[in-house]
Amino acid sequence: MTPRLLVVRLSDSFAEFWPLVAVEVGAELVDHPVAAPVASLPRDSAAIVVAAGGREQQLAEFLRGFAAPPGIPILAVGASTGHRHAARAVAAGAADYFALPEDRDALRDAIAAAVARRGEAAARAALARLESQAYTFREIVGESAALRAALERAARVLPHGDATILVSGETGTGKELLARALHYGGPRADAPFVEVNCAAIPGQLLESELFGYERGAFTDAKSAKPGLFETAEGGSLFLDEIDRLALELQSKLLRTLEQKTTRRLGSTTSRRFDVRLIAATNAVLDTEVRAGRFREDLFYRLNVVTLELPPLRARGDDVIRLAEFFLKRFSAQYTIPEPALSAAVRAALAAHSWPGNVRELRNVIERALLLSTPGTLELTEIEARAPRPPVDGALPFPARLSEVVQAAARAMLDLTLGNRSEAARRLGISRSRLQRLLRDEQEEGDDEAE
After folding, report:
1. What is the pLDDT of residue 388?
2. Coil, strand or helix at 244
3. Where are the beta strands (DSSP E) in 273-413?
4. What is the C-alpha to C-alpha distance for residues 107 and 76, in angstroms, rounded to an integer?
5. How far is CA 271 from the centre of its chain?
6. Contact 341, 371 (CB under 8 A)
7. Which residues contact 398 (CB under 8 A, 6 or more apart)?
8. How many other C-beta atoms are found inside a 10 Å radius of the C-beta of residue 422?
9. What is the structure's pLDDT at 249?
10. Lowest-confidence region among 115-119, 274-278, 434-438
11. Is the pTM of this model over 0.85?
12. What is the spatial distance between Cα 347 and Cα 209, in angstroms, rounded to a whole number?
């Protein structure tokens, strides 16, 4: 939609100017003589000009009785260059006062800037509408009781755009998809959704990503850079794998959330922000707290509303529903005839434990569709698994007990394709215990190398 420029005329002065400036800035002119009812004014304009050439004495009184919608600037225009008229107009609610013809260029620039802002806002809103269609709860496929319970909890918190949310669940269960649904289905949908994986960025770099930096803050800081809290202003910041955040960053994040302010590296000035935080983890955070790897105070700050996504093995027939969903999607994407799921394929899908959860199922369906005869989904391709790292024979024996236990942990991790939560479940130990075993094994290997 073309942005509109609304001109409210208290007088007929400068009447020839408004069509010209509207063409220059790419706006649709809406001419509104003051004799028409004010209630009939269109309220979706990029800017509102109140033209009062020769009637500057009436300008302030008119402005005091006129309320523009939030975000739409009122630009007062007169013929007088006196500061008294300008000051009264601004005090009565105008964003600025322009005296024509002297301020012609400045007025045109102010209108052009307002039109550009309106266009950007419209583009953001259109993108948000598209995103909301893609990331509402409708895209989280499944009818199992376990999934429905999680989504019902999510739906209750959906309208509350300020609530901090912690999404937990194994790798591949759809935590990012749920985070996007919470953002694009809620009151912050028109503002940015910014995501960062805390495990994918080194700690020092992650600090500058989150909080930004000023020019000269460090050697390579050639120019200032806003942090992600600033980038996400008005919207949501999604911190995935929050358990991998370094302890010193956990402390800074806690202060940021408590004070609702952020400070760039190298700056002495704090900036207030309005951002909803959504964090996600596949770890058991209270276990991480007891192990000293996660701050207890930050855990309580994040654990306002917890939404836990169930693993695929606990979702019953959702495996089949998801398989059919992915078949439809990938058949359309690759222009391949959509095959039906045979009884043998359904049985194979239901029998697998899916340690990689929905992500693993999606990859299996995509690969099987591409490698099967067009129009079919072959059982051999469904049962084919991704190559696993080789295990060197049986568990070591005779050997020290610690070596046997570590080898069993490593073998189970290989068996579950690196899914630590599933490996710990099959071993009958906690995920943190498995992590300690693997860490001890690595440390012993480092000692031997030295």
Report:
1. 44
2. helix
3. 276-281, 305-308
4. 10
5. 20
6. no
7. none
8. 25
9. 93
10. 434-438
11. no
12. 46
> What residues have CB less than 8 Å from 313, skipping those under 6 apart?
353, 354
Partnered with residue 278 across adjacent β-strands are 165, 238
pLDDT at 267: 83
Strand 225-226 and strand 212-213: the pairing is antiparallel
Q: Choose the weakest-confidence range: 75-79, 141-145, 176-180, 242-246.
A: 75-79
Mean pLDDT of 353-360: 92
Neighbour tally for 417: CB within 10 Å: 17
Provide the CA 272 distance to its chain's centre, in angstroms.
19
State both tokens at 257. Answer: 């959330």
Q: Which residues does 423 contact at the CB level (< 8 Å), separation at least 6?
A: 355, 409, 412, 413, 415, 416, 434
Bridge partner residues of 32 (DSSP): 8
Instruction: Check pLDDT > 50 for residue 45.
Output: yes
Q: How far is CA 10 from CA 59, 97, 194, in A?
A: 8, 15, 46
User: Which of 281, 277, 284, 246 is closest to 171 using CA atoms?
Assistant: 281
pLDDT tier, 448 (very low <50, low <70, confident <90, very high otherwise):
very low
Q: Which two tokens stand for residue 288?
A: 């991480």
CB 56 within 8 A of CB 13: no
CA distance 244 to 281: 9
- Classify 375 in phi/psi space as left (phi over 0), alpha (psi -120 to 50) or beta: left
Report which residue type is found at 324. E
Q: Are 169 and 163 in contact (CB under 8 A)?
A: no
Confidence label for 49 from pLDDT (cuts 50, 70 and 90)? confident
Q: Which two tokens stand for residue 136?
A: 């509402």
The amino acid occupying position 85 is H
Phi, psi dihedral angles at 64 (to 5 degrees): -65, -25
Q: For residue range 5-31, what is the model confidence (pLDDT) as tens digits?
A: 888 888 888 888 899 988 988 888 888
